[in-house]
Automatic annotation (TrEMBL):
InterPro entries: MFS_trans_sf (IPR036259), POT_fam (IPR000109), PTR2_symporter_CS (IPR018456). It comes from Gossypium mustelinum. The keyword ATP-binding does not apply. The keyword rRNA-binding does not apply. Its main location: membrane. The lineage of its organism: Eukaryota, Viridiplantae, Streptophyta, Embryophyta, Tracheophyta. Coiled coil: none annotated. The chain crosses the membrane at residues 96-115, 182-204, 210-229, 328-348, 368-390, 411-431, 461-480, 492-517, 537-560. This is Major facilitator superfamily (MFS) profile domain-containing protein. PROSITE patterns: PTR2_1, PTR2_2. GO terms for biological process: oligopeptide transport.
Length: 570
């Protein structure tokens, strides 16, 4: 058997640093450990975060708008910190050690949060169910724990999906076909963890104690780490390629220095290494593309490029290095479209919960009450329902019509998700309009729970879940596939920042709308008692933003040029 048949040829190595063996590492053999890790980590994260807005409101005694803002800001930070973890993974540590190191910070934060909700003297003192008086130190302890978790998750979020995809070789036809399915099942594991968190753990927090409700997620995170380390011998590891930020700036500087230099018509004259492999460690060469041609100037050779017999990288860059920058620039419009989608998605953890809290939370005619935050399980159930349908039905059917191996291109898949995401806001706005009509008709303004079942919220959650399957999974795969080999964690982090910016934008909009509408004695659109408010107007604004976002996305998607690495199979 030839060496190419035994070892991967995509630059991956095993845990000892030797070329990865195709038969003994990667593919579905490594899959259970990565999926187990992700499922338990997501159980921990969502178990702690799903009900967080109500913890802020009732345990930390914060006003509705303050609680929603703090929840959005913390959630946003959890999707900004991945830039730190991704940079370290791609540049120095590699994905394996980045996940390992940041998991320790994560566990410390989860443990401290559980202690802050359960240990006397640290937990807020409560005189009744909704009457708590936390000290500044107790509130500070909670936020310290939360932001340690935000830092810890920053090393895991951008690396785990990319690390799982690394287990499938782009140069092997069979493995590359399986990679697309991996992203579907990876996202399914996230939602199984979220399902348990949104049902069981939220119930524990509302009906048993916050100590247990936050302690169980800490235990789940410890199990996630055990899953990850158990698969060490089976993993394929991408070698870190040095600072990608430095390489990008080298192309910018070199192209600006040569702004007067003409790019040759024959692109084979552009500078590239003569070796089979790229000069970037762990990265394949990338074929030249014709768009964004200004940056090709960085690869045009002139006499002053040589510095004491060697190439000055700030004056002359390879075609692969130039194409890295082009790939990042092409991603930016697609990335921006994800911000509005995430703005819509983020309502599930804030205004949807606050809306549901004012509705009848009883299940049927029993005394059992479902926590408002637990309605998010219908988003999770929607994802669990749609993932296998997409993977086993939609892909094969659309493949017959499009001829594309995945049925739909990644851009088509995301576009469909953006279109679907408009409808949850429309449904939520109509529901709130009907709820407020009933309140006005029967004078229910001071009722804590009005006689309209919370299960009327199910359609808006289910539609968001459907949109997720198209947009978020498509985004995961798109940013991995279109990223240069040595920048995949960084591009995964870039895609995650859309969630952060969506949360921050939501927080900003809530603040602006609250301040603009709560004047002259009026309660405004988003008061503490939503029965006096008009969040239906806010939902209509979000629906309009979704329509605008879809139009801009379609325009840029038609312009996009896909990356093609040397040796990649189509």
């Amino acid at each position: 058997m030839e060496e190419d048949d035994i070892y991967t040829n995509d630059g991956t190595v095993d845990y000892k640093g030797n070329p990865a063996n195709k038969k003994k590492t990667g593919t579905w053999k490594a899959f259970p450990f990565i999926i187990g890790n992700e499922g338990c980590e997501r159980l921990a994260y969502y178990g702690m975060s799903t009900n967080l807005v109500l913890y802020f409101k009732h345990q930390l005694n914060q006003h509705t708008s303050v609680a929603a803002t703090n929840n959005q800001n913390w959630g946003g930070t959890c999707y900004i910190t991945p830039i730190i973890g991704a940079f370290l993974a791609d540049s120095y540590l590699g994905r394996y050690w980045t996940i390992a190191c940041f998991s320790i910070v994560y566990i410390i934060g989860m443990t401290l949060l559980a202690l802050s909700a359960s240990v006397r003297g640290i937990r807020p003192r409560c005189y009744a169910e909704d009457n708590c008086n936390p000290t500044e130190v107790q509130s500070a302890m909670t936020f310290l724990a939360l932001y340690l978790i935000a830092l810890g998750t920053g090393g895991i979020k951008p690396c785990v999906s990319s690390y799982g995809a690394d287990q499938f070789n782009d140069t092997d036809e069979k493995e590359k076909t399986h990679k697309s399915s991996f992203f579907n099942w990876f996202y399914l594991s996230i939602n199984i963890g979220a399902l348990i968190a949104g049902s069981v753990l939220v119930w524990v927090q509302d009906n048993v104690s916050w100590g247990w409700g936050l302690g169980i997620p800490a235990i789940a995170m410890a199990i996630a780490v055990c899953f990850f380390f158990s698969g060490t011998r089976l993993y394929r590891n991408q070698v870190p390629g040095g600072s990608p930020i430095t390489r990008l700036f080298q192309v910018l500087v070199a192209s600006i220095r040569k702004y007067k230099v003409a790019v040759p018509a024959n692109k084979s004259l552009l500078h590239e290494t003569a070796d089979k492999e790229s000069n970037i460690k762990g990265s394949r060469k990338i074929y030249h593309t014709n768009d964004l041609s200004f940056f090709d100037k960085a690869a045009v050779e002139i006499e002053t490029d040589q510095l004491k017999g060697s190439v000055n990288p700030w004056r002359l860059c390879t075609v692969t290095q130039v194409e890295e920058l082009k790939a990042i620039i092409r991603l930016l419009p697609v990335w921006a479209s994800g911000i509005i989608f995430s703005l819509i998605y983020s309502q599930m953890g804030s205004l949807f919960v606050l809306q549901g809290e004012r509705m009848d939370t009883h299940v049927g005619h029993s005394n059992f009450k479902i926590p408002a935050a637990s309605l998010s399980i219908f988003d999770t159930l929607s994802v669990i329902f749609w993932v296998p349908i997409y993977d086993r039905i939609i892909v094969p059917v659309t493949r017959k019509f499009t001829g594309h191996k995945n049925g739909l291109t990644q851009l088509q898949r995301m576009g469909i998700g953006l279109f679907i995401s408009i409808f949850p806001m429309v449904v939520a706005a109509i529901l709130e309009h009907e709820r407020l009509k009933m309140i006005k008709r029967h004078n229910y303004y001071e009722l804590k729970e009005m006689p309209m079942t919370i299960f009327w919220q199910v359609p808006q959650y289910f539609l968001i879940g459907c949109a997720e399957v198209f947009t978020f999974i498509g985004q995961l795969e798109f940013f991995y596939e279109q990223a240069p080999d040595s920048m995949r964690s960084l591009c995964s982090a870039l895609s995650l920042t859309t969630v952060a910016l969506g949360s921050y934008l939501s927080s900003l909009l809530v603040t602006i709308v609250s301040n603009a509408t709560a004047k002259n004695g009026k309660p405004g659109w988003i008061p503490d008692n939503l029965n006096y408010g008009h969040i239906d107007y806010f939902f209509w604004i979000l629906a309009a933003l979704g329509v605008f976002n879809l139009g801009v996305y379609v325009w840029f998607a038609n312009w996009y040029t896909y990356k093609k690495a040397v040796g990649t199979l189509r």
